[in-house]
């Protein structure tokens, strides 16, 4: 998923919005949990623990993708105004306020810049994260 995101950013010149960046953080975290679990080779309780962690972060990313899809579905007159970049927000505001501002979304998050089969980027991210969440739930329920 990150390979596609980086390709879209650098080869297709699609600039990620703040919600996209937060979704990337969740995808990277899920990938890191999976990599650590693969290297660690845990037993029964460890598999459940890694599965639960994977599920929680995939659920968080899915929530962010759902929020962006909701912003994209708003009529043009209800879309929030565009705000400053994430870099600027991180320099000026404390982390809790940055998270609050990013989660509220802005006009850049509501813009649909690319689709495949009628599904936008956060839609595909949501589909991928639901798949990863299903793997985490399966690991938690059947840790063999």
What report would you give on this structure?
- The model has no long low-confidence stretch (mean pLDDT 89).
- This protein has one domain.
- The relative contact order is 0.19.
- α2 runs antiparallel to α3, α2 packs parallel to α7 and α3 packs antiparallel against α7.
- With 144 residues, the chain is an all-alpha fold.
- It has a two-stranded antiparallel sheet with strand order 1-2.
- The longest helix has 30 residues.
Q: How many E strands?
A: 2
Reported for the largest beta sheet, the result is: 2 strands, antiparallel
Strand order of the largest sheet: 1-2
Q: How many separate structural domains?
A: 1
Order of helices and strands: HHHHHHEEH
Uncertain residue segments: none
**How large is the share of residues in beta strands?**
under 5%
> From the helix content, strand content and strand pairing, which structural class follows?
mainly alpha
Topology:
Elements: H1 2-10, H2 18-40, H3 44-73, H4 86-92, H5 95-104, H6 107-110, E1 115-116, E2 119-120, H7 121-141
Antiparallel strand pairs: 1-2
Helix pairs in contact: 2-3, 2-7, 3-7
Task: Briefly say what this structure is.
By secondary structure, the protein is mainly alpha-helical.
Which terms summarize this structure?
144 residues; mainly alpha; two-stranded antiparallel ribbon; 7 helices; 2 strands; 72% helix
